Amino acid sequence: MTDSSDIRVRTLNFNVGVLGHVDSGKTSLARALSSTASTAAFDKNPQSRERGITLDLGFSSFTVDLPDHLRDSCGDHRWDSLQFTLVDCPGHASLIRTIIGGAQIIDLMLLVVDVVKGIQTQTAECLLIGELTCPRMVVILNKIDLLPPAKRQSAIEKMTKRLHKTLENTRFKECPVIAVAAKPGGPEAPETDEPQGVPELMELLKRQTYLPRRDPDGSLLMAVDHCFSIRGQGTVMTGTVLQGTLAINDTVEIPTLKVTKKVKSMQMFRKPVSRAMQGDRVGVCVTQFDPKLLERGMVCSPGSLRTLQAAIISARKIGYFRGSLSTRTKFHITVGHETVMARVTFFGLHAATETPASLPDSAPCPLDTPFTFDREYLYQESYVTGRGEASTGPDREQWALLEFERPVTCPSLCLVIGSKLDTDINANACRLAFQGRLLEGFEDKAYGETILPRLRICKMKHKEGQVERVTDDYTVIGRSLFKKETNLQLFLGLKVMLSTGEAGVIEGGFGQSGKFKIRVSDGLRPETKLLLSSGSKKKGKGGGKVEPGVKEDEPRAESQPISIHLHFKRYVFDPHKKMIQS
């Protein structure tokens, strides 16, 4: 009998995500492929059985001999078998949160397509999630038994051609497409009907495998998807190790609950093991823990994960999203294994400091320009597509501040997806809006006072008024720049520019109606005085009324107004709302 450590060393785990539109046959396909069902597999949820759709991530596995191409690339490892762990993700539209959570732990994606219906809304969303999270994909044309035998082959070839056309601008260009009937006759058909094409699919899967990057170093991070109790044993948390290593007697933390527990025992698909590492699917038994407190979440090395109130992410719009990405709007944010509402503020670089973006919008968000609190950024009313004035070409580099409605626990640099999941689930529209990577997280509940003032996001302001009159060669009276109730003391000393080219400084108020004095230290130009003078003479000669107390020949500028321009910037999170001029 092989001991647990030998099992661990000799079996390579490879995670395969099974995604697709609702009722495309994902669970039937996973069932046909699998030999061992895990505790979470095949729709244990009562609501799921009743509705006939997958409501949660289901996990199952099958083991094959290690393919030769992997044996040659194993190096010093002594693997002799390959375990496929199938992650059956739900296809129902309202459950996209779960799909995103599942997609982050897969090495290869199976996109299941109903051969009769073709690409549907959720199929396209699953494809997008795959592009963000997974390096390889195989497309499964399922339910070929529903096609008339005489037309079956031509229909398969036609659908394959359409799929390759759809995929040609994605990272999955020229990926394999294979036709199967995972459950001939449908869900109600007797089990005696043999699946069609499944042996060929298993061979294709073996050829598509690669040696996943498995790093045992670093702190533990495990994505838990189910939690249940076993009488006399304790509570079992099942999930996938995303980072680091886990061993019996290790102490782990459940950060959302601020609870630490010691690992009593572990299993991989009902086989006891003493150790698990990145990429492994494992059940971890702890004692004195109520399973109702944790259905899905993160388990980690004590103190290694932070619970965030807000975060800064790199941001890139998903091209198929047709809505606008407006600042101050709330989006569903999926980060780690959680989905939470957050208010979003978009910001970017000043035009002079932009760097060229070269990646398509489906690629993982770039980190070419690292975020730093030392740099000044420009506030954006919305995400900017294209590059400034041009609406074509790659998007400029942008970031977003996320302010969560409730705290979230997640690792740094993890994938973040923003969605509009409140969109009508029957609408033929992509609900995935933007994606990025978590760059900075704020744990302090008072982050608005302690951290955001350090975030130098500025709004560029421009106010325009008019010269009403000139009082001497160095002073003019302006109007229409401020409202009557504006506190002019805040603007004293700010520089302004006349449309005739003179620079001046706001010296003080004039009267009670929002008018103000401007001091032009270098004096008004002769042509400016002439313009003001000619304007007032025309007014006087025309018999217009003259204000009481003002001589008829006093220079005025009502007929040919000279404009006053005030430019300044304000930092959005500056508690003092100071106006700054360069």
TrEMBL record:
Entry-linked CDD domains: eSelB_III (cd04094), SelB_euk (cd01889), SelB_II (cd03696)
Domain of life: Eukaryota
Gene3D superfamilies xref list: P-loop containing nucleotide triphosphate hydrolases (3.40.50.300), Translation factors (2.40.30.10)
Reactions listed under catalytic activity: GTP + H2O = GDP + phosphate + H(+)
Biased composition (Basic and acidic residues): 548-557
A single GO molecular function term of this UniProt record: GTPase activity
GO cellular component terms given for this protein: cytoplasm; nucleus
Record's function text: Translation factor required for the incorporation of the rare amino acid selenocysteine encoded by UGA codons. Replaces the eRF1-eRF3-GTP ternary complex for the insertion of selenocysteine directed by the UGA codon. Insertion of selenocysteine at UGA codons is mediated by SECISBP2 and EEFSEC: SECISBP2 (1) specifically binds the SECIS sequence once the 80S ribosome encounters an in-frame UGA codon and (2) contacts the RPS27A/eS31 of the 40S ribosome before ribosome stalling.
UniProt name for this protein: Selenocysteine-specific elongation factor
Provenance organism: Muraenolepis orangiensis
